[in-house]
């Protein structure tokens, strides 16, 4: 799975051209696509590796610990590289009016939240590497997508992000609920956990869309340029991705890997 993803990404990168409908948008990240910088190529390559490792980790279901550790490390490096790209190129059009400075400040803190909590609580059990990598990926893809101007150059990129992000977020939410069940706080069973995670994800996604609407109206940002049509599409694609997350969790359970993964 990881190799297939990497090969597909390589083919897309090599075949990229100025036709956004044919995925040329992947290399259009400098000044509305009129120049490709080495810093952007480095960020693109690092994120591509992180993407391949992350979905390879999902396919593996936590069986190979090195794969999850590699995915977690590369994804975190991608986020830090994305923040550095923003600071080095503050005048790029894709970085304007999107509250990206706030994201640049808080996303790195959020991506290291799980290791910080693990260390503070003095946990001695296995580190939740798959969960940490999943959480970090959900934050990283947003920063990198903005940095490389994919939101502006590919009309469907926002839908892709909402769909893909739902999968790791469902993994993280399900892991939290599974931990509560292991501690005896709740008794839900697998399908109860899946339903509760799906409900929580849907509610959190609604809050996210509402916050974007309010930011646009109150502070003049451009987080929902497509208005209600965009928000509705985002909801539908997020729901599709969340259901894909349930399917992934079920496949781990069916293969006896759920406990190893989470």
Characteristic key phrases:
262 residues; mainly alpha; 11 helices; 0% strand
Summarize the model shown.
By secondary structure, the protein is mainly α.
End-to-end Cα distance: 20 Å
How many domains, as an integer?
1
What is the CA-based Rg, rounded? 18 Å
Poorly predicted ranges: 10-21
Strand percentage: under 5%
- Major sheet attributes: none
Total helical segments:
11
| Overall 3D form | globular
Structure overview:
The protein is an all-alpha fold and 262 residues long. It has one domain (2-261). 74% of the residues lie in helices and 0% in strands. Helix 2 (38-60) runs antiparallel to helix 6 (129-147), helix 6 (129-147) runs antiparallel to helix 8 and helix 9 (189-219) runs antiparallel to helix 10. The longest helix is centred in the last third of the chain and has 31 residues, at 189-219. The chain starts with a helix and ends with a helix. Mean pLDDT is 81; it is low at 10-21.
Secondary-structure map:
Elements: H1 2-15, H2 38-60, H3 65-88, H4 100-111, H5 113-120, H6 129-147, H7 150-153, H8 157-182, H9 189-219, H10 227-254, H11 258-261
Helix pairs in contact: 1-2, 2-3, 2-6, 3-4, 3-6, 4-6, 6-8, 8-9, 8-10, 9-10
């Amino acid at each position: 799975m990881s190799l297939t993803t990497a090969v597909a990404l390589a083919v897309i990168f090599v075949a990229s051209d100025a036709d956004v409908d044919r995925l040329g948008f992947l290399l259009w990240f400098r000044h509305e696509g009129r120049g490709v910088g080495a810093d952007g190529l480095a960020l693109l390559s690092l994120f591509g590796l992180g993407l391949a490792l992350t979905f390879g980790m999902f396919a593996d279901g936590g069986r190979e610990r090195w794969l999850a550790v590699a995915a977690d490390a590369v994804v975190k490096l991608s986020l830090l590289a994305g923040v550095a790209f923003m600071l080095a190129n503050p005048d790029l059009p894709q970085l304007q009016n999107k509250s990206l400075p706030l994201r640049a400040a808080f996303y790195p803190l959020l991506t290291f939240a799980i290791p910080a909590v693990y260390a503070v609580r003095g946990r001695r059990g296995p580190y939740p590497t798959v969960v940490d990598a999943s959480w970090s990926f959900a934050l990283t893809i947003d920063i990198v997508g903005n940095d490389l101007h994919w939101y502006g150059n590919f009309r469907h990129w926002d839908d892709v992000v909402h769909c893909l992000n739902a999968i790791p977020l469902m993994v993280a939410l399900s892991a939290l609920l599974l931990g509560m069940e292991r501690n005896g706080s709740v008794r839900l069973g697998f399908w109860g956990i899946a339903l509760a995670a799906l409900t929580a994800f849907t509610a959190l996604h609604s809050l996210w869309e509402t916050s974007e609407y309010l930011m646009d109206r109150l502070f003049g940002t451009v987080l929902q340029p497509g208005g209600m049509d965009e928000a509705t599409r985002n909801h539908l694609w997020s729901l599709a991705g969340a259901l894909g997350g349930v399917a992934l969790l079920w496949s781990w359970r069916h293969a006896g890997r759920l406990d190893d993964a989470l």
